[in-house]
Amino acid sequence: MIKGFKSNLLKGLLVLLPIGLTFLIFGKVLNVLDMILGRTIYKIIGMKIPGLGLLAAVLLVAATGALASNVIGRKITLLMEESMANFPIVKAIYNPIRDVVKNFTSKSSNNFKKAVFVTYPMEDSYSIGFITKERVQVGDKLKTAIFIPTTPNPTSGFLVYLSSDKYKELDIPVDVALKAIVSLGSVSSEVLEIAE
Fold this sequence. Notes:
Blueprint: H1 2-45, H2 52-68, H3 71-86, H4 90-105, E1 114-119, E2 126-138, E3 141-149, E4 157-162, E5 167-169, H5 174-182
Antiparallel strand pairs: 1-2, 1-5, 2-3, 3-4
Helix pairs in contact: 1-2
């Protein structure tokens, strides 16, 4: 009983820690932006406007995207990415997150191109996973590498190597499957077709 409790405690931490850290960091950024903009706006117009942090965060992300779209911006972005990717300690966090985001968003990436059903975490239950690599030699058998993301944070999850008879390809696009995961299933299709 104690062993099962410890196992559940560890699994709970693995699920909640990335989500909690994401909300904590995002909340801190919003508070700092609210504080800085709030003081500036208060000095100019003499009143505080709540929610400026959220507006500033949205504008900052959009401005970064616009900057990264032109030639000079691409060079600056590349320089920043190289610096982050080679900086000790920071690269251990930055590189995996960057790779996962690129795999999910890049149209040219060969990863995450097929959504599958995997019997997980128990018999007669299904989890959505994504094929990351086919035909991986594990001992004397060919397996498929499948990433099973956690909900609602798909940047963390489990990597499993399965035989082709242990998963079923879904007849839905990857982005639809990803929306189902992020939305906790609330925007999932009423019918999930299995590919023939």
